[in-house]
Amino acid sequence: MQTLFEQPGFAVLHDTDNCWLYATWQGKRTSQASQACCEALLAQVRATGSTRILNDSSLDLDGWSDIVAWVGQDFFDLLADAGVLAFAWVVPHNLRALTDVYKVMAAITRPAVSMFEDIEGAYTWLDKSPGISHEPVSC
Fold first, then answer.
1. How far separated are the first and last CA of the chain, in Å rounded?
2. pTM higher than 0.85, yes or no?
3. Domain 2-127: CATH architecture, name and number where available
């Protein structure tokens, strides 16, 4: 995997074997920092043309309480507009952060998003995600 963007508690990597982005969230951030991380992820979607994202927030500790509406309504629409078709979300172990994920999920209309408790389930779903050609492609 190639690291495309990294800062404390957040990274976006390009999984060249699967031609998708892998985002990791750890620890606590301000709402402004969380929104900036979302925007960085969107920028990498646009730069790579990736249509699938494996989003691992299992170690996230704060959620997005102040920006839940923006994430669920605006951010996911922006991802879909940029070409994202499938988003596999490994949910946080932290209860507060998990509660925010459920609030975000209630607002998402597109792209296809599914939640997982482990990375293996997310990987499998994303690999077989709907509407995606699984023919070999170059990234």
1. 12
2. yes
3. 2-Layer Sandwich (3.30)
